[in-house]
Design brief:
35 helices; globular; 2% strand; 70% helix; two-stranded antiparallel sheet; mainly alpha; 4 strands; 785 residues
Length: 785
């Protein structure tokens, strides 16, 4: 028990648990805001209103009400679309207007309201709420038919001559599938939103924070080895199997705490955000996500299974990591290898889908044990010696075998260990190389900067933190392109005519427009082409809009603007515009979190070992050494900036952006951002990334100053995160006024145009960064022990 108290009462463990929980909840809240159409509270109100309405009517009447509301919302969208076409063409398409009148009730009133500007704003949250309720209601009304289709498919397979042998896997699998699904036939499905449970099941980021907490626990378990107490510990009574048993229990307890802390925290926060009843006693099949949970179970039972399975997977991975690190000579080296393996495994899991040749090997991925939601949301049987075995059963068996095998290996290793560090197979290879390396370094010592790099990146875990930051940055994907048919057609035409502005190109565009209008007019006279009317109308609108833009560009060229080009604004909008705000904000938070966790290691190692006063007594200990530390901290921020900006530019290029557009006049994008001037786009891009670099350098300086004043690494990381990240978290939770002091929000930016607020922020960051560096140097110089 003393071993548990040592680990779980440690300030490092407690601080890491709180910090990781806050980061997890912040990302979860941000994700729910994005999933709900930008406003969770609006989606919540619509969802709860519909839940009250649907509980008072029959399913058929409820579905009719939902379809009527969906028709109304689509009618407003059609009215907005027709108004856009009218603004582009200068007239209303009578045939399309007649079609919309037939399709939507009261369309004339809607269209007139859009013209007058009195129409309600487009409400994405309302559309999502109605669409999801239609999906839920349709699913529950057709659940019996779904079960009947499973039985029909099983009968078809059994009657097929190729699979008619009852001793084959296919025949047995058909029988088992039918039996499993029919066991839920008597389940009385309860209509419920299920947004909280579904959001937890679809969340993948929590496993990263759970693994980080497991790493902290294992690092504390290996603390006696790091301090050189392993031999003494082995020589004590109960210093072998008893202590090892308690440590196995500590890993299991840490896994349970990590799973229930992260998943339970999301459950509580999701309940607060959505304010929906969970209906834990309802059948699990009441929620659409568990349609293929082919077994009688309740929502509460499935949640408990999910939490326990997550804890078991974390325990198995934690025991495996502990067993590996206990046999390696260097803890930082082991953590680096461990992080690299997990990165490759996660990339493998995310990269390959069912259409890839290597997909079958993904079943051996370690994240199958850490992400049980995939097994909960699908039905899959594996072929085991000709007998079908359910995926959930097999994963549970693999987790149990892994836990018992690793625990047994740890106990056997502790029992037969001689208590010295040179007895393992790994260490027998190292003494000769270690002696030669020490002899070489005694003659050719490394520079101070090299030692500082080693301390920060290896001994303080900087490589692991930066690696996790890189994964978080590269796991972000830009928002999807506009799905509006008109915008899609416009983007296609722009990509066709992209290039320098020329009168001949405008003549060609007008010729194509005339041909498309002729095709559209002919289709209106042929009722068999009624399904293509909207498509042809969208093409006409896109060409009208393209002509208007091109004419404006030619007018600007005649007015003296040089280097004008027709450019596609979609890559700029999805990366640098309002659509990419979430994409940039999450990346900014990941970058700042990496700074908060990495830079405190600059001062921590000397203070932890009582070497700071000795360093200050040397010739260059108070001057040159601090300069190297400051350079190191700034280099870390530059490295993060390079990863972030490089990935962003790569995404810009993959979305269709061209480097040929950089020399173009920024006025070429007047229809995207009217605040851009006549400067080349390359200057705006350089200014955008320079602004971000200054922000990261300033954040690194502030973190360096905070670290210089605090005696331990954890308080420095916690206070740095409090200063740099908590404002953006509070902003996402409903305090928009804090956006003006949010470091992450300013780093994310709001477009390429330079505004006075950006200039002011640039100046504040510069002054704050220089002041923090000066204060940190002053703190280092006046240290007296």
């Amino acid at each position: 028990m003393a071993e548990w108290i040592r680990i779980f009462s440690n300030r490092v463990w407690l601080g890491a648990a709180v910090l990781l929980l806050l980061c997890n909840l912040g990302l979860y809240a941000r994700e729910q805001s994005s999933q709900a159409g930008g406003a969770v509270h609006a989606y919540r109100e619509y969802t709860n209103q519909w839940m009250q309405t649907l509980s008072e009517v029959s399913p058929e009447d409820g579905l009719a009400l939902l379809e009527q509301e969906n028709q109304t919302l689509q009618g407003w969208n059609a009215a907005r679309l027709l108004a856009q076409m009218e603004a582009g063409q200068g007239q209303v398409d009578d045939e399309l207007l007649s079609r919309y009148r037939t399709q939507y009730d009261n369309f004339d009133a809607m269209f007139q309201a859009v013209r007058d500007g009195t129409a309600p704003a487009q409400d994405i949250a309302a559309q999502k709420a109605v669409t999801r309720w239609m999906d839920r209601l349709t699913y529950q009304m057709n659940y019996d038919e779904f079960l009947s289709s499973i039985s029909s498919q099983a009968d078809v397979i059994r009657r097929n001559p190729l699979f008619s042998d009852p001793h084959t896997f296919v025949y047995r699998n058909a029988d088992k599938t039918e039996t499993d699904y029919l066991s839920t036939r008597d389940a009385a499905l309860k209509l419920q939103p299920g947004d909280v449970v579904t959001s937890i099941m679809k969340n993948r980021t929590s496993v990263i924070f759970s693994l980080c907490l497991m790493v902290v626990s294992i690092t504390l378990i290996l603390e006696p080895k790091r301090l050189g107490l392993e031999t003494l510990e082995r020589s004590c009574i109960n210093g072998r199997c008893a202590v090892t048993g308690w440590r196995i229990g500590a890993i299991a307890m840490s896994a349970a705490i990590a799973a229930f802390l992260m998943q339970g925290g999301m459950l509580l926060l999701g309940t607060l955000l959505y304010r929906q009843p969970l209906f834990l006693d309802a059948p699990a099949q009441s929620i659409l996500f568990f349609q293929r949970w082919a077994a009688p179970a309740t929502v509460g039972g499935v949640l408990l299974w999910y939490f326990l399975f997550s804890a078991a997977g974390l325990c198995a991975v934690g025991l495996l990591l502990w067993l590996a690190l206990s046999k390696l000579p260097s803890l930082p080296l082991g953590l680096t290898v461990y992080g690299a393996v997990l990165l490759l495994e996660f990339y493998w899991l995310k990269q390959y889908d069912v259409n890839d040749a290597l997909y079958p090997l993904s079943g051996f991925n370690i994240f199958r044990l850490l992400l049980p939601a995939e097994a909960a949301g699908r039905y899959l049987n594996y072929d085991l010696l000709g007998f079908p075995v359910r995926e959930r059963t097999l994963l549970l068996a693999v987790s149990a075998v892994s836990i018992f095998a690793c625990a047994a290996a740890a106990l056997i290793s502790a029992h037969f260990s001689r208590g010295t560090r040179q007895n393992g197979a790994v260490f027998k290879v190292l003494p000769r190389r270690g002696r030669s390396k020490r002899a070489y370094l005694s003659r050719h010592p490394k520079s101070v900067l090299v030692y500082e790099w080693q301390k920060l990146l290896l001994y303080c875990g900087g490589v692991l933190f930066l690696g996790v930051c890189g994964v978080l940055l590269m796991s972000q994907t830009p928002p999807p392109a506009a799905s509006n048919m008109q915008q899609v057609q416009l983007a296609q035409y722009i990509s066709t005519y992209t290039g320098p502005v020329d009168e001949a190109v405008l003549v060609q565009i007008r010729s194509v427009r005339q041909e498309e209008k002729q095709i559209y007019a002919e289709s209106l006279e042929d009722d068999s082409k009624a399904a293509f009317w909207e498509y042809y109308a969208a093409r006409c609108w896109a060409l009208d809009e393209l002509c208007a833009r091109y004419e404006e560009l030619l007018d600007m060229q005649a007015a003296g603007h040089d280097d004008l080009q027709l450019l596609d604004d979609q890559p700029f909008e999805r990366i640098y515009g309002g659509s990419g705000t979430d994409f940039r904000l999450v990346s900014a938070c990941a970058s700042l979190l990496a700074l908060c966790l990495t830079i405190p290691g600059v001062f921590w190692l000397e203070r932890n070992h009582g070497m700071e006063l000795l360093l200050h007594s040397t010739v260059a200990g108070r001057t040159r050494l601090w300069r190297w530390k400051a350079v190191l901290a700034l280099c870390v921020s530059i490295g993060i900036w390079l990863i972030w900006s490089g990935y962003e530019l790569f995404q810009f290029r993959s979305l269709g952006g061209s480097w040929d557009a950089c020399p173009a006049n920024a006025d070429s994008l007047f229809y995207w951002d009217s605040h851009l001037g006549s400067t080349p786009l390359l200057v705006y891009l350089i200014g955008f990334y320079a602004f971000r670099l200054v922000g990261l350098l300033s954040a690194a300086s502030v973190t360096l100053w905070i670290s210089s004043r605090l005696p331990a690494m954890l308080p420095a990381a916690g206070i740095s995160a409090l200063v740099l990240l908590v404002p953006v978290l509070l902003t996402q939770l409903g305090t928009p006024s804090l956006e003006y002091v949010s470091w992450a929000a300013k780093l994310a930016g709001g477009g390429l145009a330079v505004r006075w607020a950006d200039v002011l922020c640039f100046g504040v960051w510069t002054v704050l960064g220089i002041t923090a560096l000066v204060a940190s140097r002053h703190q280092w110089l006046r240290y007296r022990g």
